[in-house]
Amino acid sequence: MMFYLVVLLILIALIVWLGQLVLAHPGIATITWGVWSLEMKTATLAALVLLACVGFYLLVSLLRHGFGMRRSFSRFRAARLGSKANRALTQGLIQLTEGHWDKAEKLLVDHAPYSDTPLLNYLAAARAAHMREAYERRDELLKQAIESDSKANVAVGVSQAEMQFGSGQLEQAHATLIRLRELSPNTLMY
Predict the structure, then answer these.
(1) With the CA atoms of 9, 14, 16 and 19 taken in that order, what torsion angle do they form, in degrees rounded to the nearest 10?
(2) How many CB atoms lie within 10 A of CB 98?
(3) How many CA atoms lie within 13 A of 184 on its CB side?
(4) What's this model's pTM, rounded to 2 decimal places?
């Protein structure tokens, strides 16, 4: 803050000094461009140059502020969507618990891209699809869960094996568990 105050005082002193210099030595400035010629007092030219510099600075500041507003709006929109996604996760889990599986799946999937925890959204949506016996949709949602968090392969695989076992898909559940054993051989599985 102090630095800007010092710079401002130096600029004011330079402008006053330049103004005194121009007023003490009046003269005529001529600007020629092709067949055009413009004559004016040196003080007028100095004032126009100063005005042009101030105008350029204000234009650059306005443009910079305008792009900053755009960034601020983007951050505000992302925060709003994230908040909405968190509320949708809560509502989706409530709908899942109450047995409204279609509503739960829709809420969870629609807001997953904006959620802080898309893995949870996709896992819960897969559970809702499983409960409605939409097994292909369940497997698709489990793939999306893995894509949202590649470190959760084991957790998603365990959920997948559990749902496959619960729906009587014993061979698929066995294959999933074998794949999980290969992914994480040090994890105990019963």
Answers:
(1) -160
(2) 10
(3) 14
(4) 0.60
Specify whether the CB–CB gap between 183 and 155 falls below 8 A: no
Q: 80: which 2 tokens?
A: 């709003």
Helices (H), the chain: 2-24, 42-98, 101-111, 118-131, 135-148, 153-166, 170-183
Output the CA torsion 157→161→163→168 (10° steps).
160
Report the alpha-carbon distance of residue 124 to residue 119 in Å, rounded.
9
Question: How confident is the model over 131-169, as pLDDT tens digits?
Answer: 988 889 988 998 999 888 888 888 888 888 888 898 888
* Cα-Cα end-to-end distance for the chain: 66
Cα distances from 17 to residues 12, 21, 29, 36, 121, in angstroms, run 9, 6, 19, 32, 68
Q: Which run of H or E residues covers position 37?
A: strand 36-41
Residue type, 98: E
- Mapping DSSP to helix (H, G, I), strand (E, B) and coil, where does residue 33 land? strand
- Reduced to 3 states (helix: H, G, I; strand: E, B; else coil), residue 187 is coil
Amino acid type, 114: Y
CB 119 within 8 A of CB 127: no
In angstroms, the CA 127 to CA 155 distance is: 13
* pLDDT tens digits along 54-98: 899 999 888 888 777 777 788 888 888 888 988 988 899 999 889
